[in-house]
Specification:
mainly alpha; 10 helices; single chain; 0% strand; 270 residues
Amino acid sequence: MLPTVLQRLVMLVAITFCGLILIWGGSPALPEGGWSGISVMDAQGGILAASLALTVCALPALLAALGISMWACVATGAFTLAASLGVFAWYGGPIDGLLFRANPLKQVFIDLAIETLGWIFLWSVMMLLAGILHNAVRKPTARPHGSVGGTLSAGAICAVVGAVTANLLAKSTDPGQVVGALTLGFMLGGMVARSSVPSTRPWGLILSPLVVALGTYLAVWMSFTSDIMLERSWFEGRLTGLALMLPIYYASAGVAGAAMGFGLGRKVRT
């Protein structure tokens, strides 16, 4: 196992390098009209081209995350991948442009929900591969990994605490606000969940931000019977917080926060 200082140095280099690769090669995922954050549903290259570009450019980050998962832990690998995505997400910007161009506006939230399902699938694959590689290299010991119920309970706690905290902290759609709110919110959620539920599996915590995102988009879509009502709520400033965060922010800053919370909660528990 590598020394802690060397581990952190490797992670920092991986995050910076992989983030720059995403910025360099991820142009098909940028929005058509500019002035908007990154969403494959609003990409200038189309959904397929944007998805392919993101997948290819994220491969170095994924490989780095899987490698780190082998000699550290799965949550540390997840943090590395999420932070790399976060560099690209911040480069993309806020959701505003997407909402201003949308017609009809309600459809945007269904599109974002569909995109979130894609992120949930990709993160599930990453966690599965990371777990397999970690166990293959580190050899599972007698230490319990926790029950499925415990994993789900930890995820639920992280989702509730993270969502409430992030929603309170986010005062605008500025990328700094969004990243800070999601990171701090789900870090707190992860700490509370990990220190209160005896489960060493990070699955529930890592996926909890994306579950919150999916629920938020669907709730917005179902809460308004017409585009006019939704537009009025948005222009009057009543549609705020979690509803105005793009899926890539949940998949990066939210997941990174939950991964940090998992590690901090483990220290609190011990």
